[in-house]
Amino acid sequence: MTSLSICPVSRLPRQPEAARWLVEELWSEQAVGIVGGEPKCCKSFLALELALAVASGAPCLGRFAVPNPGNVLLFAAEDALHIVGERAEAIARRRQLDLTALSLDVITTPIVRLDRDPDRRALTEAVDRLRPRLLVLDPFVRLHRIDENVASEVAPLLAFLRELQRDFQTAVLLVHHARKGAAHSRAGQALRGSSELHAWGDSNLYMRRSSESLQLTIEHRAAAAGAARPLKLVVDGDTVALELVEPAAAEAPVPLAPEQRVKSILAEARSPVSLRQLRQACQIRMKTLCSTLACLTSQGAIVKSAEGYLLHSP
């Protein structure tokens, strides 16, 4: 009988903060997970952005740092190879990267089925030989012939990918579709198929489209998720890439003129307002306040009484 390995909790290894991220804030080191969303939500663009960032060390989306770049292995089952190449080149131009210098390899075999033992062995051999820091598989629906709604069929495929991650210390990114009509569900619950898929991920990224805007939701098993990020697909000449949408800077309110301040305060008053009360409310110099009151009184806009000032009622 094989005995279990046991260790006191106080002696369990700790991971340094610097080693926790493959892509800071977006993808944990050696994490398995999903880039999910409905069709036409730029999931493949986001996966390719992550792939180029890890292969180059350039910040992903121009913002999120890659502490330790390395090899990337990509299987894009849904797009023709020339489309994958053109997209990668367009993103590389946008990020000012030399595509020929990147360690980004593409599986060109047209069909890989992870429910078949020969294909599992072939993928394992490729990962063993190339030792990628990130394996991207896009999309999940093209990687099998199982029923995605049956947990007992989905679980072995996910277990195989988890085994790859553990055996070769690689992160695994799986692109997957959301259910139709699930726009109002929580991001992870909107994924198509078994709940095993959502539970499996260490880091998950979800894309949603509302009209022309895209929203990126981030989820981690062992780290804070952070706020959702608005994105847009920017087409600029021969460059195409996802970009973060910076929130518009709030315009500083234009200060009211002294006359407007006095009239605004008197409009809300139910009884006469004294000079001292007006001075406190308006926050202007006494000399300016007195000249303002005199001007408004002469214009008939306000009325002065023994108790104070009132807005003139026609």
Could you outline the blueprint of secondary structure elements for this entry?
Elements: E1 21-23, E2 27-28, E3 32-37, H1 43-56, E4 72-76, H2 81-94, E5 104-106, H3 117-130, E6 134-138, H4 151-168, E7 171-177, H5 196-200, E8 203-210, E9 213-220, E10 229-236, E11 239-244, H6 258-268, H7 275-282, H8 286-299, E12 302-304, E13 309-311
Parallel strand pairs: 3-7, 3-8, 4-5, 4-6, 6-7
Antiparallel strand pairs: 1-2, 8-9, 9-10, 10-11, 12-13
Helix pairs in contact: 1-2
Describe the structure.
- This protein has 314 residues and is an alpha/beta fold.
- It has 8 helices and 13 strands.
- The strands form 3 sheets. The chain has a 9-stranded mixed sheet, sandwiched between helices. Strands 1-2 form a two-stranded antiparallel ribbon. It has a two-stranded antiparallel ribbon with strand order 12-13.
- The mean pLDDT is 90.
How do the SSEs run, as a string of H and E? EEEHEHEHEHEHEEEEHHHEE
Pairing-aware structural class of the strands and helices? alpha/beta
Number of strands: 13
Assembly type of the chains comes to single chain
Assigned CATH class of the largest domain: Alpha Beta
Overall geometry: elongated
Sheet with most strands: 9 strands, mixed
Strand order of the largest sheet: 5-4-6-7-3-8-9-10-11
Instruction: Output the number of helix runs.
Output: 8
Strand content: 15-25%
Low-pLDDT runs: none
> Any idea what the radius of gyration is?
30 Å
The percent range for helix content is 25-40%
* End-to-end gap: 99 Å
Please give the domain count: 2
